Amino acid sequence: MVVAQGIEVLETSFLFGEKSHFVLTLDVMKKILVPVDFSKHSEYALKVAAQIAKQHGAGIILLHMIGMSDSVLANSEIAEEAEAKYYLKLSKEKIKEFTEREYLKGVPVEAIVQNYKDFTEVNNVAKEQHCDLVVMGSHGTGGLSELFMGSNTEKVVRTSELPVIVVKKPHDDFSIKKIVLACDLAKESIPAYRKAEAFAELFSASLEVVYINTSGANFMGFDDVEKRMESFQKELGKEINVNFYNHHSVERGIFNYCSEKGADLLVIPTHGRKGLAHFVVGSLAENVSNHAKMPVMTIKI
Hints:
alpha/beta
């Protein structure tokens, strides 16, 4: 273990740890995992994570994946060890520089360097380190599809058993006062609502539920809307206020609603291997980048 200016860099063995099952409660926020590639988007995420950590007395674990190629690993043991030490040394230096930020003062920070090449391994690290939340940056420039699909972020979102907050813009004063949960009111979305509700309580924030009613074949009349809402509430075991928002696009409808309501965080359930396809069908909006400045949290159901 190497310690520099309060930052612990944990040397790992490049082996996968035992995968244990865990249950998310969100009663407290103790550890936040932040995958970093030393880009500006990683720093956007780290800054948001630091603000959340300070609000809840939590610590931060940075994860950097070296991702050595198979050709390197195929070398002799001596060559492999030398190559690994070289990349490990570079990564440590970058992490120390990356974490020497004023906004991290007072926040316990640990850094893990692993030879993972696949971002699906983020979930394993989160479980092994008993994290409560993942915060990561995204290079996406457009709507939800560009924010997630076909990216490392999408791989983390698809496989993470923890809530994942995706950040794509800098947030110097990050606070969560109003949360919007966009869901289809299906029975499968009940766990996502419960987790979003727990998250809102943890942050003393309000929670609104919105269903985007699209035009065309998927449009629902008033009677159908009432039946779907009643079924959802029955499964939930209590009455909640559900807002129905009409728009020709689910994606644009979500962003428009969040913009009109002044939401600080958008929460979207994801079905894991199905990704977010059910939320990004149809044509993409050309002008949603302003709306997408808002962080998006995904919850796997």
